[in-house]
Design brief:
two-stranded antiparallel ribbon; Rossmann fold; single chain; 195 residues; alpha/beta; globular
């Protein structure tokens, strides 16, 4: 009897550092993590303090199978300097969801927590999936910040039109898990082809 051919896992042997910021869209992160793991990725999560208002570290730890980081100086950190060690760990840094606040911090180099410090410290590709109110997304400052980050080589999965937390329908709804996963695969396959 012939065995069915196993589908190749596109992210086998790859590590994604998944930063979650304080958007309602953070509740979708466990499904995205599961999809990345199904493709063979190791997923390590870092949460901002506001992200914890929408999804718990326990949920992310259960889905990822990895420790979840949020404190800059945890007493039991397995690394010497946590933010630089985490910055060197992955093949790709994924910021999903990315709030207007976190995008502004990245664009101006503010590094006042673990997540923003490791973004400055990493030299790995960075993929950003914005999620926010439509007025915040379309605001000239947010658009300027996004353009500045794109000019620096940051990758983006643009938000889509959809239901927003404020009750309106508009552009600012996070892209689908499938779209974000496709971007992760694309960036990592380009990186592999340049080796």
């Amino acid at each position: 009897m012939l065995r069915p051919k196993l589908k190749a896992k596109k992210l086998s042997g790859r590590t994604v550092l998944h930063i979650l910021t304080g958007s309602i869209a953070a509740y979708k992160a466990p499904e995205l993590i599961k999809k990345m793991k199904d493709e063979g990725a190791r997923v390590v999560c870092v949460m901002t303090s506001c992200a914890k208002e929408f999804v718990t570290p326990t949920v992310l730890r259960t889905v990822s199978g990895e420790r979840v980081y949020s404190e800059m100086f945890p007493q039991d950190a397995p690394f010497g300097v946590l933010h630089t060690s985490l910055a060197d760990l992955p093949d790709l840094v994924l910021i999903s969801p990315a709030t207007a606040n976190f995008i502004a911090k990245m664009a101006t180099g503010i590094s006042d927590d673990l997540a923003s410090c490791l973004v400055l410290a990493t030299r790995k590709p960075i993929l950003v999936a914005p999620a926010m109110n439509d007025n915040m997304y379309m605001h000239p400052m947010t658009q300027k910040n996004i353009a500045q980050l794109k000019a620096l080589g940051y990758h983006f999965v643009d938000p889509i039109e959809g239901d927003l937390a404020c009750g309106r329908v508009g552009v600012g709804h996070i892209a689908s898990e499938e779209s974000i996963l496709a971007s992760v695969k694309s960036i990592l396959s380009q990186k592999a082809s340049r080796r």
